[in-house]
Amino acid sequence: MIEIEEKLRLRRGKPNDSEALTWYQNQEVVYLVDGVRESYSLEKLQRMYAYLDQVGELYTIEVQEETDWKAIGDVTFSQNDLPIVIGDSAYRGQGLGKKIVQALVAEAKKRGYSALHVREIYKGNYASQKCFTACGFEIQRETEKGYSYRRDL
């Protein structure tokens, strides 16, 4: 568990978490993540989560509502990539992504990492580009569909 603030935390995710399926059936969300407008099946979501949990630490992003915690997205913590999705549209545009990325940068520093990388952010995903650049990431190079980023620590 990574506590970001009183009502925002990262809970270790599991490859069989299915609460995210509705986010990944939203074609706009999938477009920002994969660059295609094709909804995920439960099997595809579970394969993706299993892969992300192998290459890094898969987390479910949760916010506290009243007395319960609600899953609103996911993020994977890895030196080589930091894929993040705020799947619940009601929580986009509130600066949560920036708080999460800042918390992961702090965690990376604690672990002694020298840098963090983002493999690719698609050219049309302006919110994600803005989030990562606001957290000190710089464009490393142009990719086929966007840009890769790096933050030295």
From TrEMBL:
Domain annotation N-acetyltransferase: ranges: 8-153
Pfam family, one: Acetyltransf_3
Annotated InterPro entries: Acyl_CoA_acyltransferase, GNAT_dom
GO molecular function: acyltransferase activity, transferring groups other than amino-acyl groups
Identification of the protein by name: GNAT family N-acetyltransferase
Organism: Streptococcus zhangguiae
